[in-house]
Amino acid sequence: MTDTAPKPSLASKEESEETPSESVALSLNTKPEEPEPRVEVSPETFREVAYAVLVDELKKWGSPAQYLQKTYPTPESQLEFKELLLEHFPKSPGIDYHSSSELPSNMTDLMALHLSDLGFFARSSTKPAPFLHTSISLLDEYLTNSFLTEQDPVLLAQGPSTSPTPDPFWSIYVKGAARSCTALFLAAQCIKRGWKLAVLRPNLQQSLLVVHARRGFMPTDREAVALENARLSSRGAIRKSHCVLTWLGKLSLLREQGLSAENTLKVWNQSCTKESALTGSRRVALLQLLGMPKAAADLLLEHVSLFGDRTAFMEDAFASKRLGVGAMPRSGSKAWNMRLQVTEAGQMLFLRYIHSQHLKRLPGTRAKRSKDDLEEAISMAQLLVSLTDDLTAQMPIASVDAQVFERFVEGDTNLDLELQSALSEKRADFDHGDITIFRELVNEHATSTDRKRQALGMPTSSIAAAQLERQEFDIAMSTLKRDCDAYRIWLTQSRDREAAAYFAELQHQKQRKQKAKDIAKEMGQPSSALWTMQLTKLGKPAACYQEIEGAIKNIMKREQFTSKDQVLSLVVLNWAAPSTFSSEQQACQASLAGALVNDGSGIGAVLTPVYFHKKGALFKVEEAANKQLAGANLNQDHRFALPFQGRNDKREKRTLVQPGRFLVPMEEESYQKVMDIWRTAPLLRKPLAEESVLLATRDMLRPAAAIADKL
Predict the structure, then answer these.
(1) 3-state secondary structure 634-678
(2) In this predicted model, what pLDDT tens digit does every residue of 272-316 receive, in sequence order?
(3) By C-alpha distance, which of 66, 8, 6, 11 is closest to 304?
(4) Whose CA is closest to 222, among 186, 174, 168, 164?
(5) How far apart are CA 194 and CA 190, in angstroms?
(6) What is the DSSP letter of 131?
(7) Cα separation, 535 vs 545, whole angstroms
(8) Which residues have C-beta within 8 Å of that of residue 190, sequence separation ≥ 6?
(9) How much is the pTM?
(10) Which intervals carry biased composition (Basic and acidic residues) (predicted)?
(11) Cβ atoms 155, 174 nearer than 8 A
């Protein structure tokens, strides 16, 4: 009985809604070579330690089925695994275990199976490998409440075996593949790591000694098994109806075996409840998904495996024809329509972009993308693919697609803004040179080409330009020398007068710095009875959020608070001039703001953009900022304004009214809770602050000096 194990790929969904932690990454395709470090556990720590260790192991493989198929690929290794299971999980005396040739003739009698009877192969179920989030939830359930199957038995589609020596792991499931594979994975890991469940978790050991099952509906083909599995999934408290992406995985497997997806859907809709039927936009979405290239479908299955119900896509998202290969905009010039016609490469880049942005967000900030968001994203992705093709057709730049696409997938805000502006304007003379990253690549390529030509003694295109630059440099140096001479004369004349003032200022600075250091030292002590300050350099959102949570816990400990809600957080984002910090920092700030506001009783405020270096693009910058905050699951409906008295200098260009938005949770219950806490805040009651003085530039102090003066 040899079963070729498929390449690991996150695949199916069954019984859970839980979403794994932010540290989840897509499954690796290779088995780890280094030996597993020994993890010491005790009965008191077993659940927490085992959960953390085994979740990490699951994330390496993508699902328990993929781990088992890769670890035990041959009949010899499977027989060895069976012997290990019988040794560590022996059959209970007095229990009449059934084999594949001794199944009951009806569908009501329970039968007892051993762990070595549970199948984990691709042929054991009509669904792909269990989804990662499902397996993690089941693992948590087993470690907490054991592997309980007596009230909810595994359903088999296996008929009586004709083999005189039944193979191990023979079960074929109508329902229960995810539960069974997760239980086998748990047992295999306990054996591998030397964890004695009889000592560490006796009730879990006992529950794994016998698996209760019964014969389910006995179909004649795999299509009928798949439909019966879908029917059972649409009922019960643990299971959920198949979503469109789960149907995609199921029908893809059936289609690989020569069955018709459309016919399967027709049979399903005739036999299921109205709520479970695939009709209307859901049916259109599924048929469009089935027409996707395999690589795109596999990425979507990995996405739903990772996030479960909290994916970036709504059920009918792919009913939009704009997301399909070959689709083009309905309006615009012919050149732009051809440029934005969706290709397989553009669709794949779009899916990678959406998945990457969803993965970067903290769990509390993940929300479904609207139809408009998805259509804009695929237009941006396809525009990038078309521009890349145009560029590579003109000049042989190595790995240009990788450089450009990776920057886009990582969520470079500046690149997004340029693409959105291009899509909004749709200029007739637009080409790849209007996008910064392409311009940089072209310049780098030209420079590299000139160097090669010069090394070969060939004329280069940059000789005239280099000579001109040399002349300009000589003129600048002459001007600089004249200025330096004038400065030396002035310095000699003023040195005596300034000497006394200089030493007085030096002494003052020294005293002020010492005072600031003393105060800063006290602020840096978490045990300070007055107040504390903690500075964190922005990096990955998850790491920053962990530091913020640590600071909140210190406050709770110091003030003897019992609940996190007792610590009121005020999140302030100064986005008045987004060009002063990087797109990665802006994305990190948005994620942290969303997590903090949605996680407790805090509120946020953002100073919206009022300046951008590129004229005519400010509205796009503000739109991009609003989208970024909305993507962090933040409600921005409430606005405020900070007015200033007036300008004292005709050269002053700063705004006299700084607009802003309050940041509150999107969820209604959390929103009401926050508004009840902060309802008496003056700026919420009257969103127009009193006029402030607009300081002249010469009157502004450095931040360090201003803080020292105030302290």
Answers:
(1) EECCCEEEEEECCCCCCCCCCCCEEEEEEEEECCHHHHHHHHHHH
(2) 666 666 667 777 777 777 778 888 888 887 887 777 777 888 878
(3) 11
(4) 174
(5) 6
(6) P
(7) 13
(8) 88, 196, 197
(9) 0.55
(10) 31-43
(11) yes
